[in-house]
Amino acid sequence: MPFDAVVLGSGVAGLSTAIRLAEAGATVLIRTAAEPAETTSALASAMIGPNLYPPGDEQRDWADETLRVLTSSDFPGVVERTGLLVARPANATPPFVERTPGYAPCAELPAGFGTGFHVRLPIVDMPVYLAGLRQRFLDLGGKVELNPVGSLAEAAGLAPRVANCTGLAAASLVDDPELRPVRGPKIVVENPGLDTFFLEAPIGAVWAAILPHGDHVVLGGTSSDSADTTPDPAEEAEILRRCAEVEPRLAGARVLEHKVGLRPGRPRPRVEAERVGGALVAHNYGHAGNGVMFSWGCAAAAAALLAD
């Protein structure tokens, strides 16, 4: 069967882009090294927002488009929740945040924090969400093959349009010195009864994140330039300690999962097109920790590049 487009990668960027192409009427093949549940995307904490990029920045547009899609459609694994965003310095409320749904200043902050406000945003249970995206793509007539390409030239021989959504694996397909692995652990514990989220900002080397999903809670987080995916018990204990300081009900919560993913770090995502052989290639990778938040916006942008 000839295909109009081939998408490389089955993480959140690849699935979202493939869906947009299929919705536009293209016959689409995904070539991937792993099923969605085994990708880095499955290890994302995945809260959509707040969008603090200034007006006119394409990253703001990408995040707004994702927020629009996830709040106007019914996706498995996506739930809008109220939560608290905090910073340790006082008077650190960022610009534009008052536009965030549910924004309200917080009068009583946890110890050690000088700024905080409530918002209402979607949080995403990634394994459930990715399974739903995969099924949506298949329902649109798409095909998934567990057979990664060895080069962009090989991909260009499969279809006249190619979307490179391979994340960190893009390093084997393109010469991009700005792409680097960023280690990020995912700690999942039993939910002791939480239904609101908590996130400490700005995101740096360490922070506290508490994202409840029904019977379990995803905790974070850390970020370091490293390609090591070995779970670290000391790192786990420190994440649990920081989160229990904020929410004492988490003290002693049973750990259900501890995995480490590698975010595709880059100063800015690469969303641009080039010709490879006889094919038009749209690159859509390098989202660092914003892969889910930018997913639908970047998918729309990549699909538009391939429509030219």
Model description:
The protein has helices at residues 12-23, 58-72, 126-139, 152-156, 233-246, 295-307; strands spanning 5-8, 28-32, 78-87, 104-105, 115-124, 143-146, 161-164, 180-190, 197-200, 206-213, 216-222, 224-225, 255-265, 270-276, 279-285. By secondary structure, the protein is α/β, with parallel strands linked by helices. The chain folds into 2 domains: 1-77 and 125-179 and 266-308, Rossmann fold (3-Layer(aba) Sandwich); 80-122 and 180-264, D-Amino Acid Oxidase, Chain A, domain 2. Strands 3, 4, 5, 8, 9, 10, 11, 12 and 13 form a 9-stranded mixed sheet that branches. Strands 6-2-1-7-15-14 form a 6-stranded mixed sheet. The longest helix has 15 residues, at 58-72. The model has no long low-confidence stretch (mean pLDDT 96).
The count of domains is 2
Whole-number radius of gyration? Answer: 19 Å
How large is the count of helical segments?
6
Shape category: globular
List low-confidence stretches.
none
- End-to-end CA span: 23 Å
Give the helix proportion (percent range). 10-25%
The H/E string reads: EHEHEEEHEHEEEEEEHEEEH
SSE-based structural type: alpha/beta
The profile of the biggest β sheet is: 9 strands, mixed
Strand fraction equals 25-35%
**Mean pLDDT figure:** 96
Number of strand segments: 15
Please state the second-level CATH architecture of the largest domain.
3-Layer(aba) Sandwich
CATH top-level class of the largest domain: Alpha Beta
What is the third-level CATH name, the topology of the largest domain? Rossmann fold
